[in-house]
């Protein structure tokens, strides 16, 4: 492994639950663990909330991958990715 001499931040890391709910937990959990175990400066999980502007308007909600990237849904209920991130980052000690 080569040493990295510059800070690296992974941006827009995540997984859409449009694909499969349980996979979001696995992907985000492993991405978060990797960010803590490596020489990365950080990771930004994309995105916090599903397409919240469309909540309450079923006719505006699409069955599309882009609308389901959140680690919480539009009503702020946690999804599998939230719990994975919480578990990894709450165990981090500096």
Nutshell version of this structure?
This protein is an alpha+beta fold.
Structure description:
It is a single chain. The chain is α+β, with helices and mostly antiparallel strands and 94 residues long. Helices cover 30% and strands 10% of the residues. The protein is built from two helices and two strands. The protein has helices at 21-37, 80-90, and strands spanning 9-13, 42-45. Strands 1-2 form a two-stranded parallel sheet. Strand 1, helix 1 (21-37) and strand 2 form a beta-alpha-beta unit. The model has no long low-confidence stretch (mean pLDDT 82).
Helix and strand topology:
Layout: E1 9-13, H1 21-37, E2 42-45, H2 80-90
Parallel strand pairs: 1-2
Helix pairs in contact: 1-2
* Average pLDDT, all residues: 82
Based on CA inertia axes, which overall geometry fits? elongated
- Give the helix/strand class: alpha+beta
Strands side by side in the biggest sheet: 1-2
Number of strands: 2
Distance between the termini: 23 Å
> How helix-rich are the residues, as a percent range?
25-40%
Estimate what percentage of residues fall within beta strands: 5-15%
Order of helices and strands: EHEH
Instruction: Indicate the radius of gyration in whole angstroms.
Output: 15 Å
Q: How many strands, which pairing sense, and closed or not: the largest β-sheet?
A: 2 strands, parallel
Q: pLDDT below 50 for ≥5 consecutive residues: which ranges?
A: none
In DSSP terms (H or I, runs of 4 or more residues), the helix count works out at 2
């Amino acid at each position: 492994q080569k040493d990295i001499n510059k800070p690296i931040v992974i941006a827009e890391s995540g997984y859409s639950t449009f694909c499969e709910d349980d996979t979001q937990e696995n992907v985000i959990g492993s991405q978060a663990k990797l960010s803590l175990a490596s020489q990365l400066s950080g990771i930004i999980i994309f995105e916090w909330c599903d397409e919240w502007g469309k909540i309450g308007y079923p006719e505006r909600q699409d069955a599309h991958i882009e609308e389901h990237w959140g680690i919480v849904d539009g009503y702020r209920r946690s999804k599998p990715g939230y719990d994975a991130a919480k578990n990894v980052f709450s165990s981090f000690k500096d």
